[in-house]
Amino acid sequence: DILVDGKVCDCDVVVTCQVGDPVPLQVKLTNWSKHSVGPFALTMMPYQDYQNGVHNYELQDAITFVGSNTFHIDTVKPTKDSVYFGALLFLYTGDFYLNIKFHEDNSSRELPLSWLCLPSVHIRATEPEA
Prior knowledge:
Organism: Loxia curvirostra
Protein name: TPPC9 protein
Number of helices: 1
Helix content: under 10%
Pfam families: Ig_TRAPPC9-Trs120_4th (PF26283)
InterPro entries: Ig_TRAPPC9_Trs120_4th (IPR058568), Trs120_TRAPPC9 (IPR013935)
Strand content: over 45%
Number of domains: 1
Domain Trs120/TRAPPC9 fourth Ig-like: 16-125
CATH architecture: Sandwich
């Protein structure tokens, strides 16, 4: 589950926020398998999609993380959750996306694609209200 500014997100929803206001993020990983899973690293990467096949990940002048954009997850037991909190601060207006990836920690071998990425979250940063 992914929550942006307290709202559950899916790939069809655009979350609107204001430039200059920290936007709380929450990612909850639930283990529905019969076995413990982990260790993982959870990485959140913002980008802009130029709608021509180009994704711009060089956004250090437009977006900053409050805290870290990578979280380490030791083990998640069967039917249990692991929840991670962070925040984004948008410095400019625009449409941005958040790519959320899980990958094996301390290993160069990545998990199968079905485990690797969650659908991108679409966030629209607007001018602050006067």
